[in-house]
Every structure is written in structure tokens, then in C-alpha cells.
Design brief:
CATH superfamily of the largest domain: NAD(P)-binding Rossmann-like Domain
Bound molecules: NADP nicotinamide-adenine-dinucleotide phosphate
CATH topology of the largest domain: Rossmann fold
CATH class of the largest domain: Alpha Beta
Distance between the termini: 33 Å
Order of helices and strands: EHEEEEHHEHEEHEHEHEHEH
Radius of gyration: 22 Å
CATH architecture of the largest domain: 3-Layer(aba) Sandwich
Strand order of the largest sheet: 8-7-6-9-10-11-12
Largest sheet: 7 strands, parallel
Number of strands: 12
Helix content: 25-40%
Length: 311
């Protein structure tokens, strides 16, 4: 039987994904038709990006799964027309990209790289030796696919790493916390906090005036998760009164970040344009093909979104 697979993403992604998807699907020996247009009632699987034209899933009556190309699902998870199983993207290329980005930005602040880039004025500033990584506490909020990989990488460099998640976790040499009390404990005295939580009603403003206050004086906030995780005004207030040293932000409540947003001109904020990591077609195609093969052969789908938890 031929499987009808619809690629429903932004039109410019088709040329990037098509060869990789075909190669990966061929590797499973599946008989399939893969296209950007198909009669909805014939479609078996939708390879999906939330910014595609497909917003009403009602006509896709025999669709067995919607396979999201993005890790974050906040813009599709509450779509009431979506009754089919929804899988999110867990891709080792995406994970490696996030580990690279988070490690780079943690090391920037750990080594005070900005100082040395600007301190080329002939003044021999002896004695400004950075502390050891083992003297720094880095807390990761969100210990899923991305957060736990970043935690392991930072631990292997030498940092003291704490993690916070919704359900209890056991990870060798990483202190793991859950719940509101756990959040306070995870943030208490931390020198850096990295946000890798999904955007859900429960995670909205997880960093606010009260939780920011738990961090060590001079702490750094790094947010590659989602904009609504942080109360923007509380963040600016904490930077302005020098409780925080810096914030590196990759994600925002409104994207693109409006040109007149105060984050752009704030001297203690670095803005990056949602580039921390992205799904890589070569590795993601393998994940998609694997899930289609699993479903077509009666196995359980991987990376299923829990619609009640919202991620
Ligand atoms: P994931 O595997 O689903 O992990 C999410 C983590 O957050 C899990 O540890 C989960 O806890 C925890 N969590 C969820 N709700 C919580 C709550 N109410 N309290 C405490 N912990 C909670 O997701 P992921 O693949 O690691 O991705 C994380 C996020 O990164 C995505 O949702 C997306 O927003 C963002 N992202 C950004 C970029 C970028 O370029 N900036 C790229 C990719 C992804 P449990 O472990 O207990 O479930």
C-alpha cells in the first residue's frame, strides 16, 4: 500500500527537506508518495510546520499522525481541529546545535570574554583571572531533550549543574529539582540560569521579580527557550539595579523583536534572532521516516505530545 505523505511547511523548506526525506523513507523500503499538495482525504501523514497553510485538520480524515518539524508546539497544541496524534521534533542535529549555543554563551560570561574584547588599551590588567567552572552554579530550567543534553555538556566542562523539570529525574552528578520549592532551591545562589522550558500556561513568567531575586548577585540569564518564560519588566528592573550582570535572549514574546523594543538598546542585554538551534533537514528526515515506519508497522509513535500538559 502506498502511503500519502504531505509536506506542509513554509514553501522555502521543501527544497531543503525533499531529498533528505526521500533518502530516509527509501531507507525503510516504504512505498510512498511525498508532495506539497494532496487531496486531504487521501493523506496518511503530515510532515508539519506550524507556519504552514494547513491550519484546519478536519478534512484530513485518514491522517494517522502529524509530525512536527519544530521542537516547540505551543502554536499547534491547542488547535481544536487537530484530533490526530501530534509528534514533536527531537533531532540530534537540533540538540547538538543547542548544546553548542548554550555552551558558547555560558563560556562567554564565565570567562568574561566581553571584557577582554574591549580591554585592548595597553592597560595590563593582571589578576583578573576567571574562577574555575567548578566554582560556578548553572541552573537549567527544563531538563528535556535539549536541557538534559546542555546539562551534561556543562557538567563535563566542570560546572556545578542543577536542573528543574515537571517530573522527578535522576541524573548522575546533576542535582535535579521539581515543583515550586524545587524551583526556589534550583535558583538559589545560581550564577547562571538557562531556560529550556516549553511555552505553556504553567511556565509563563517562571522567571519573575521573585524568582530572579533567588539568583546570586551578578547572575546571568540565558534564554533560548521561549519569550513568555520571562517577565520582561522584572528582567529589566533586575538588570538596572545590578542584581543581574547580563541577559542573553534568543526568543521573545513578539518575534521578530520590534525595532523599538527596549531590549535592543539595553547595555546588559544581548539579543540573538531565534537562531540558537534549528531542526536540521538531514537528521530530522531520519526521525520523521522512522516515526512513519513505526506507525505503518503498528509500533508506538515516538515523541508524542501530551496535549493536556501542552508539550
Ligand atoms: P522537552 O524535551 O519537551 O523538555 C521540556 C522540559 O521542560 C522537560 O524537562 C519538562 O519536564 C520541563 N517542563 C515542562 N513544563 C514544566 C513545568 N510546568 N515545570 C517544570 N518543568 C517543566 O523539550 P525540548 O526538546 O528540550 O525543548 C525545550 C524548548 O526549547 C522547546 O519547547 C522550545 O520552546 C525551545 N527551543 C528553542 C529553540 C531555539 O532555537 N531558540 C530551538 C529548539 C527548541 P519533564 O521532563 O518532567 O517532562
Amino acid at each position: 500500500m502506498t502511503l500519502n505523505i504531505l509536506f506542509a511547511s513554509h514553501t522555502d523548506r521543501w527544497s531543503a527537506y525533499e531529498p533528505h526525506l526521500r533518502r530516509a523513507l527509501d531507507g525503510y523500503g516504504l512505498s510512498y508518495s511525498l508532495s506539497t499538495k494532496a487531496p486531504p482525504e487521501d493523506v496518511d501523514y503530515i510532515v508539519y510546520a506550524p507556519n504552514s497553510d494547513v491550519q484546519d485538520f478536519t478534512p484530513y480524515t485518514k491522517c494517522k499522525a502529524v509530525l512536527n518539524l519544530w521542537a516547540g508546539v505551543e502554536s499547534v497544541v491547542n488547535n481544536e481541529t487537530l484530533t490526530q496524534p501530534l509528534c514533536r521534533m527531537v533531532d540530534h542535529g537540533l540538540t547538538q546545535g543547542m548544546v553548542d549555543w548554550v555552551t558558547g554563551h555560558v563560556m562567554r560570561h564565565h570567562l568574561n570574554v566581553d571584557l577582554w574584547i574591549t580591554a585592548q588599551d595597553g592597560d595590563w590588567r593582571a589578576g583578573l583571572v576567571p574562577p574555575l567552572s567548578s566554582d560556578r552554579i548553572v541552573t537549567i530550567l527544563g531538563m528535556g531533550a535539549l536541557g538534559s543534553a546542555c546539562a551534561s555538556a556543562l557538567k563535563s566542562i566542570g560546572f556545578q549543574v542543577r536542573g528543574w523539570s515537571r517530573r522527578p529525574k535522576v541524573m548522575d552528578t546533576i542535582d535535579c529539582y521539581v515543583g515550586q520549592d524545587g524551583l526556589d532551591a534550583a535558583l538559589s545562589g545560581a550564577h547562571m540560569v538557562v531556560l529550556l522550558l516549553p511555552d505553556t500556561p504553567q511556565t509563563n513568567n517562571v522567571l519573575n521579580a521573585s524568582t530572579l531575586n533567588k539568583l546570586a548577585q551578578g547572575a546571568v540569564v540565558i534564554n533560548p527557550g521561549r519569550g513568555p518564560l520571562i517577565d520582561d519588566d522584572a528582567l529589566i528592573a533586575a538588570l538596572d539595579r545590578d542584581h543581574l550582570h547580563h541577559a542573553t535572549l534568543d526568543v521573545f514574546r513578539t518575534e521578530p523583536l520590534p525595532k523599538d523594543h527596549p531590549f535592543w538598546s539595553h547595555p546588559k542585554i544581548t539579543v540573538t534572532p531565534h537562531i540558537a538551534s534549528e531542526t536540521r533537514p538531514s537528521t530530522a528526515a531520519q526521525v520523521i521516516a522512522d516515526n512513519i515506519y513505526r506507525c505503518a508497522t503498528g509500533q508506538k509513535l515516538l515523541h508524542l505530545v501530551d496535549r493536556t500538559a501542552g508539550y
